[in-house]
C-alpha cells in the first residue's frame, strides 16, 4: 500500500480483494453456527435477595449502626464478595444435593448487585434446568443464613469471653466486685442484642424456571457475520500490504525514470480471445485506440532520436510484450510506414502464432546464410489500408507495408547467437530496407539476450504489466537499463484498467467520431 491513499483507493483495494472478504463473511458465520450447534445445552436460573442495613437491636439499645453510614454501592459490592465464599458454595451444594464442586459452582454463578436498588441477583448456569433452579434458590437461602451467622458471630465470641471471665470471678468469690457487676451487665446486653438481631438479607424472589442460554445459533451467527466482515477487511489489507506487485503506472514511471508512452488496457470482453491482434482484425474498434496513442507518442519522442531499429522488452514474462510489439508494428504500417517485425525471443517465440504464419525458415536460417533474407520475409496484409499510401523516409518516398520475420529454428545457445556478427548483419540489412524495425526481445531479467541485443539496436521500449511486475523486479530493471547503450524511448503499461481518458466507447457519439477519424487516418 502507498501513503496518502484516498477513499477511492481504499474502495478499489476492497474490490480487488473482494473474494477474501466474501470468504471470511461466509466461512466465519458458518463455522460459528456449526460450533454453536455442537455445544451442550446450558440453562440459567436467577433469584434475588434484598439487602437491609437496619438493626432493631442497636436501635432499642441505643447503639450506633455503622452500616447506615456506608456507601450503598460499596455495601452491595461487599455483600456480593461475601456471597462468593467457598464455604458458602459448599453449603449450597450440600443443601441442593447437586454433584458439583465448589469451584465449578462459583465459576458458573454470577452474583451482581442492582444498580439502583439494594438487591443481589444470583444467576446460576447448569446443563440441567432443574439443577439450575435448585442451585439458584438454595444459593439465595443459604446466603441469608450465612450472612446472619456472620452478623452474630462477633457477639457470640464476645459473650463466651465474658462468660468465661464471670466464671473465674465466681470461683474466686468475687461476685460482689464492680468488675463482676459490669461484666454481668455486658453479658445480659449481648444476649439481648443477639436475640433481637435480625438478618440483614432476605430472599424476595426464588428461581421459578430456567432459560436456555446456550447454544444460540442465531445470536452466534450474527456475531460471526460481524466478525467475518471485520476479519475479511483486515485480511484484505494484510494481503495488500504483503503484495509486492505494482498496481499504479506512476510507481512504474518513478522506478524506471522513463516517460509513459501509453497505457494498454485489457481488451473488452468481445475481443478477449486467445492470440487475436485487435489492430489486425478490428483496427477501428475502441480497443485499438490505445495502440494508436502509442504510435503517436512514439513518433513524437522519436522525432529527435530518429531511431529505426527499436527493441521491445520487459522485465519478466507474461507482460504482453509480443502482443504489444505486434500491434505497434501494425499501427505503424497503417500510418504509412514500411515496417519489419522480427521475433528474436528465441526462448519463447510467439510472433508466428499471433500472425498465423510459418515459423520456418526464419531469422536464424537467414543469419546462417541457409536462405536469402527475402525468403524469410512474410508479408502481412493490412486490411483497410488504401493502396499507395506513402510517407517521407530517409530513402525517399516509400509505400506502407508490414513484413514479419519469425524466429526460425531455435539455436542451442540463443544468447551467443544474438551476439554473433551474423545476427548483427541481418539487423543492419533490415535497417537499410525499412522505416522501422521492431524486435521482439526476451525479458531482460529472465535471460541475457536482451542485454546483448541492446547494443545492436537504436532504441528500446520497456513494457511493464500491472499486477504482474514486482517492485524488486522494477529496481533491477532500472539498474540494468542505466547500463544499456541504446536510447530508452519510454515505458508502456499493460493490463491497465479501461478508462475514457484513452478511448471512448463505440456506442457513444464521441466513440463513433473517433472510429471514423481513425478510419480516415488509417
Describe what is shown at a glance.
With 522 residues, the chain is an alpha/beta fold. Helices cover 49% and strands 17% of the residues.
Query: What would you call the quaternary organization?
Result: single chain
Unreliable sequence segments: 386-398, 500-522
What is the CATH class of the largest domain? Alpha Beta
| Helix and strand composition category | alpha/beta
The count of helical stretches stands at 21
CATH level-4 homologous superfamily of the largest domain = P-loop containing nucleotide triphosphate hydrolases
The counted number of beta strands is 15
Strand order of the largest sheet: 6-15-14-7-13-8-12-9
The helix fraction, in percent, is: 40-55%
Name the beta content range.
15-25%
Assign the CATH topology of the largest domain. Rossmann fold
Bulk shape: rod-shaped
Summarize the biggest pleated sheet. Answer: 8 strands, mixed
Tally of discrete structural domains: 2
The CA-CA distance between the termini, in Å, is 42 Å
CATH hierarchy: architecture of the largest domain: 3-Layer(aba) Sandwich
Mean pLDDT: 82
Q: What is Rg?
A: 46 Å
Describe the structure.
This protein is 49% helix and 17% strand. The protein contains 21 helices and 15 strands. The protein has helices spanning 7-16, 18-37, 56-61, 72-82, 86-96, 102-107, 129-171, 178-196, 217-242, 249-256, 278-281, 289-305, 321-334, 351-355, 363-367, 373-376, 414-419, 421-433, 449-453, 471-481, 509-521; strands spanning 42-51, 109-113, 119-126, 201-205, 211-214, 260-265, 309-314, 338-343, 378-379, 390-393, 396-399, 401-405, 436-440, 459-465, 487-496. An 8-stranded mixed β-sheet has the order 6-15-14-7-13-8-12-9, sandwiched between helices. A hairpin with a 5-residue loop joins strand 2 (109-113) and strand 3 (119-126). Helix 2 (18-37) packs antiparallel against helix 9 (217-242) and helix 5 (86-96) packs across helix 7 (129-171). The longest helix has 43 residues, at 129-171. The model is unreliable at 386-398 and 500-522 (pLDDT under 50).
Amino acid at each position: 500500500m502507498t501513503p496518502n491513499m484516498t477513499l477511492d483507493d481504499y474502495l478499489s483495494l476492497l474490490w480487488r480483494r473482494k473474494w477474501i472478504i466474501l470468504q471470511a463473511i461466509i466461512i466465519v458465520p458458518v463455522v460459528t453456527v456449526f460450533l454453536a450447534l455442537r455445544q451442550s445445552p446450558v440453562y440459567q436460573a436467577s433469584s434475588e435477595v434484598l439487602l437491609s442495613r437496619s438493626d432493631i437491636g442497636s436501635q432499642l439499645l441505643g447503639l450506633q449502626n455503622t452500616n447506615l453510614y456506608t456507601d450503598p454501592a460499596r455495601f452491595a459490592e461487599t455483600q456480593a464478595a461475601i456471597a462468593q465464599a467457598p464455604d458458602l458454595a459448599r453449603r449450597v451444594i450440600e443443601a441442593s444435593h447437586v454433584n458439583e464442586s465448589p469451584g465449578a459452582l462459583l465459576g458458573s454463578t454470577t452474583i451482581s448487585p442492582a444498580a439502583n436498588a439494594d438487591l443481589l441477583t444470583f444467576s446460576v448456569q447448569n446443563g440441567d434446568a432443574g439443577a439450575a433452579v435448585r442451585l439458584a434458590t438454595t444459593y439465595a437461602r443459604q446466603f441469608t443464613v450465612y450472612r446472619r451467622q456472620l452478623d452474630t458471630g462477633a457477639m457470640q465470641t464476645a459473650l463466651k469471653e465474658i462468660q468465661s471471665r464471670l466464671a473465674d470471678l465466681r470461683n474466686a468469690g468475687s461476685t460482689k466486685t464492680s468488675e463482676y457487676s459490669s461484666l454481668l451487665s455486658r453479658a445480659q446486653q449481648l444476649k439481648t442484642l443477639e436475640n433481637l438481631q435480625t438478618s440483614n438479607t432476605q430472599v424476595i424472589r426464588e428461581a421459578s424456571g430456567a432459560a436456555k442460554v446456550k447454544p444460540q445459533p442465531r445470536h452466534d451467527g450474527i456475531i460471526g457475520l460481524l466478525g467475518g466482515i471485520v476479519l475479511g477487511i483486515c485480511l484484505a489489507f494484510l494481503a495488500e500490504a504483503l503484495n509486492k506487485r505494482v498496481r499504479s503506472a506512476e510507481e512504474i514511471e518513478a522506478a524506471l525514470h522513463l516517460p509513459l508512452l501509453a497505457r494498454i488496457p485489457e481488451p473488452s470482453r468481445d475481443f478477449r480471445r486467445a492470440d487475436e491482434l485487435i489492430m489486425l482484425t478490428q483496427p477501428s474498434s475502441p480497443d485499438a485506440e490505445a495502440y494508436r496513442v502509442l504510435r503517436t507518442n512514439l513518433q513524437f519522442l522519436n522525432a529527435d532520436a530518429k531511431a529505426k531499429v527499436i527493441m521491445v522488452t520487459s522485465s519478466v514474462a507474461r507482460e504482453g510484450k509480443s502482443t504489444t510489439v505486434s500491434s505497434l508494428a501494425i499501427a505503424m504500417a497503417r500510418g504509412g510506414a514500411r515496417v519489419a517485425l522480427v521475433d528474436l525471443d528465441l526462448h519463447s517465440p510467439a510472433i508466428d502464432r499471433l500472425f498465423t504464419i510459418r515459423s520456418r525458415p526464419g531469422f536464424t536460417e537467414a543469419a546462417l546464410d541457409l536462405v536469402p533474407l527475402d525468403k524469410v520475409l512474410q508479408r502481412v496484409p493490412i486490411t483497410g489500408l488504401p493502396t499507395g499510401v506513402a510517407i517521407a523516409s530517409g530513402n525517399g518516398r516509400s509505400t506502407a507495408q508490414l513484413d514479419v520475420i519469425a524466429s526460425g529454428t531455435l539455436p542451442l545457445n540463443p544468447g551467443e547467437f544474438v551476439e554473433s556478427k551474423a545476427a548483427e548483419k541481418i539487423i543492419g540489412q533490415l535497417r537499410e530496407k525499412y522505416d522501422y524495425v521492431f524486435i521482439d526481445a526476451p525479458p531482460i531479467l529472465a535471460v541475457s539476450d536482451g542485454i546483448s541485443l541492446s547494443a545492436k539496436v537504436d532504441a528500446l521500449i520497456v513494457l511493464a504489466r500491472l499486477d504482474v511486475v514486482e517492485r524488486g523486479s522494477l529496481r533491477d530493471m532500472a539498474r540494468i537499463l542505466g547500463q544499456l547503450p541504446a536510447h530508452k524511448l519510454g515505458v508502456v503499461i499493460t493490463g491497465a484498467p479501461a478508462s475514457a481518458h484513452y478511448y471512448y466507447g463505440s456506442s457513444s457519439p464521441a466513440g463513433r467520431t473517433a472510429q471514423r477519424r481513425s478510419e480516415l487516418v488509417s
